[in-house]
Write a structure and sequence with these properties.
The chain is an alpha/beta fold. The protein is built from 14 helices and ten strands. It has one domain: Aldolase class I (TIM Barrel), CATH 3.20.20.70. The relative contact order is 0.20. The structure holds flavin mononucleotide. Flavin mononucleotide binds next to helix 14.
């Protein structure tokens, strides 16, 4: 493929990323945990969910806009937090945030991002949520929340499916870690991708900017951040979450919910939105797909708060299916990540254009002119439970 802008699908953008990046970086973005059963299941559930289209409804003009937590977005879609993006392309976080802002979409900054909370607010003005992992160092954790508040982020997203890191075997096999541990295998991989390498050398090795200062982490190769993994707090529980709810008065979004009883308890605790997510298959392998988990969670939540879904969104039809099964919107991780690491803001915009164009076409072919006309009757019953 000559240019990613010729990519006609998200899969084309993925292949362009594969071509451009050292294998260890691509695998870090693309891979999942252990046997990657859940990674594949996320996609498989969309494949198994068949559409039952309606006809003769007059679909010449289509409105894809939707409300997410009280704000009108041009698509029922928000950008999911993805850490370490700068290892794919310098400035990829800002590029992605700008592409989202251009379309009135919410951008979620990862606490493991290679751009700081303040840089995003300054350089990509728009609607932002900040995603935080629970750190053992609670002073540092709350200081991140304070910074997000000061930088006027609209929402705080707490990711709850990572008490410990998943076992990502592609990274183990590639001997890949952040900070890079230079060994002959990794060095060869980097040198086989001279364009990527020259860009890294020109801009400096990225740093997980928001983690600087955590337990003595500094700028510099030896302190490049993803030792953050060691700082996650596996003792985090409902009482701790309650404290965060009491501390943060703006929108609180909980990501990584897979069980309906947990979803219900989060609603009762006063959380503002739920993201059905299995971390894109990067955490617990053999966990069920998010599309399969969605209907029971939607039922438990009973429209009291919005329910978003991520995991495996690669087609506009995936967005329609998630909404038909009760989601208020979706989040994209890799789909927009691949665009951003391949060609910065243009690449991220291109990914969003592909998804939007496909969503419009699917809505037209299903006889839905507006998002609220995407209803459960468009899905063949029982198929989606596979
Ligand atoms: C490279 C990469 C980094 C990620 N980093 C984070 C993160 O820092 N915080 C978080 O809550 N989720 C993170 N995720 C998970 C995403 O937010 C999202 O749940 C997942 O990518 C959705 O699946 P999809 O990639 O199939 O769309 C990451 C995912 C990827 C692929």
């Amino acid at each position: 493929m000559s240019s990613p802008l010729h990519a006609v699908s998200i899969e084309d953008l993925r292949l362009a990323a594969k071509q451009k990046l050292p294998r260890c970086i691509f695998d870090f973005f693309d891979g999942g945990a252990e046997d990657e059963i859940t990674l594949k299941a996320n996609r498989q559930s969309f494949h198994n969910t068949l559409l039952l289209p309606r006809i003769l409804r007059g679909v010449e003009s289509i409105d894809t806009s939707a409300d997410i937590l009280g704000h009108r977005c041009s698509l029922p879609l928000a950008i999911a937090p993805t850490g370490a993006l700068g290892f794919g392309k310098h400035g990829a976080d800002i590029a992605l945030a700008r592409a989202a802002a251009d379309r009135d979409l919410i951008y979620t900054l990862s606490s493991s991002a290679t751009t700081s909370i303040e840089q995003i607010a300054r350089q990509a003005p728009g609607r932002h949520w900040f995603q935080a992992y629970i750190l053992k160092n609670k002073d540092f954790f709350y200081s991140l929340i304070d910074r997000a508040h000061a930088a006027e982020y609209e929402g705080l997203m707490i990711t709850v499916d990572l008490p410990v890191g998943g076992k990502r075997e592609r990274d183990n096999k590639n001997q890949f870690a952040i900070p890079f541990k230079l060994n002959p295998r990794v060095a060869f991989d980097f040198m086989s991708h001279p364009l990527w390498l020259s860009q890294m050398l020109a801009n400096g090795i990225p740093v997980l900017e928001n983690m600087l200062g955590l337990d003595g982490q500094k700028r510099g190769i030896n302190n490049l951040a993803s030792s953050v993994g060691r700082n996650y707090d596996p003792s985090f529980n409902w009482d701790d979450l309650k404290r965060i709810r009491d501390y943060w008065h703006k929108k609180l979004i909980i990501k990584g919910v897979m069980h309906p009883e947990d979803a219900l308890r989060l609603v009762e605790m006063g959380c503002d939105a739920i993201v059905v997510s299995n971390h894109g298959g990067r955490q617990l392998d053999t966990a069920i797909s998010t599309l399969r988990a969605l209907p029971d969670i939607v039922k438990a939540v009973d429209r009291k708060v919005p329910v978003l879904l991520d995991g495996g969104i690669r087609r506009g039809s995936d967005i329609l299916k998630a909404i038909a099964l009760g989601a208020d919107g979706v989040m994209t991780g890799r789909a927009t990540l691949f665009g951003a690491v391949v060609q910065g803001e243009n690449g991220a915009s291109h990914a969003l254009n592909i998804l939007k164009e496909e969503l419009i076409r699917t809505m037209q072919l299903c006889g839905a002119s507006e998002i609220n006309q995407i209803t459960a009757d468009l899905i063949l019953k029982h198929e989606h439970s596979k």
